[in-house]
Amino acid sequence: MAGRHYHHGNSPAAWAAVIVVFIGFGIGGAYTIMAEPLGVLAGGVVTLLGGVVGLVMRSMGLGQAPAPAPVSRPAAASAAIPAQSTGETREPAVS
């Protein structure tokens, strides 16, 4: 199959967002263990900031281009094959 392949999240915007979110989870997790509520809150803020970073970078053109619309093909005619003498029909064999 020739042409460009589209992969979910394979862009600089997605990578940056995931890295920032990962750092936010790390901060929140570390401060959870240390029982510091403000640190956990700071980790949550950094995690939310990761989503904002991804959206801003995507709007700057660093996200993945939208996939092209699929080409519609005409539906194949379903030909029912009559049975030999009973008058029943059967579906064609799929190869």
From TrEMBL:
**UniProt key word Kinase:** no
Top-level lineage group: Bacteria
Q: Which UniProt keywords apply?
A: Membrane, Transmembrane, Transmembrane helix
Which Pfam families did the record assign? Answer: DUF6704
User: Signal sequence: where?
Assistant: none
Q: What is this protein called?
A: HGxxPAAW family protein
Map out region (Disordered) in residue numbers: 76-95
Enumerate the NCBIfam families for this protein. Answer: HGxxPAAW (NF041681)
TM region positions = 12-33, 39-57
